[in-house]
Amino acid sequence: MLANLIVDILTLAGMITGVNAALLGLTVMSWGNSVGDAFASTSISRKGFGEMAITGCIAGPVFNLLLGLGVVTTKFNMLSGGGVTFNVADLQS
């Protein structure tokens, strides 16, 4: 319910300002998603574990990206019944 409220607020802000809703979603929502990681990395760094903070800055987003793409790709392949086929001639044109 909270996520729907945030999306509705972003949609309203997009209508008022004339900014595309997809652009608002890519920027504002991604900033909000990264705030917790930024605070965690800052506090870990202040305690003297700078290498751990840098690792968290890199490993967290990479893990989210790989897991997200893996789950979506697996789901699509299971629903499509045999995977995706590519025609090389279509890719070259």
Alpha-carbon Rg, integer: 19 Å
Q: Average the pLDDT over all residues and give the rounded result.
A: 83
What is the count of β-strands? 0
What is the distance, rounded to the nearest whole angstrom, between the alpha carbons of the first and last residues? Answer: 45 Å
Order of helices and strands: HHHH
Shape: flat
Total individual domains: 1
The DSSP helix count reads: 4
Low-confidence stretches: none
List descriptors.
single chain, 93 residues, mainly alpha
In short:
This protein has one domain (about 1-30, about 40-80). Helix content is about 85%, strand content about 0%. It contains 4 helices and no strands.
Notes on the structure:
The chain has helices at residues 2-17, 21-46, 50-80, 88-92. The chain is flat, with a radius of gyration of 19 Å. It starts with a helix and ends with a helix. The chain has one domain. It has four helices and no strands. The model has no long low-confidence stretch (mean pLDDT 83). By secondary structure, the chain is an all-alpha fold.
